[in-house]
Give the backbone structure.
Amino acid sequence: MQPKKAALYFLFAGLALVLAASVYLATATPVSAQCGSQASSCKNCHEVQGQDPVNADGTGWHQSHAFGDFCYICHAGNNQAKDKAAAHEGMVPPLSDVKAACQQCHVADLDARAQVYADALGVT
């Protein structure tokens, strides 16, 4: 192949590649994640989007447990649901079953830890 012809060939091949990539990128569907992050729908909607935030509810529990995604352990519900009704289906009041929820992580000091939050919430 002649050098001039080869240069034209590579030029047109490069232009075709740029054109194809431009069309692909222009028509690509943007990614859409529920509520905007990889956290559970509980954290995404309540904290990230600010819909009824709980981390500053005054009990201290949510703040001290904010490092993890533990909402479903105490409240049940569906922490992966994409809409509010499905997320809240099957929810239970906090501390309705302390042994089932708190004892998973706090085996040795369950009673002392649970009592602090029970007092703050006014439950026995």
Notes: Residues 74 and 95 are 7 Å apart (CA to CA). Residues 32-36 have pLDDT under 50 and may be disordered. The helical segments are 3-27, 41-48, 61-64, 71-75, 84-88, 98-102, 110-121.
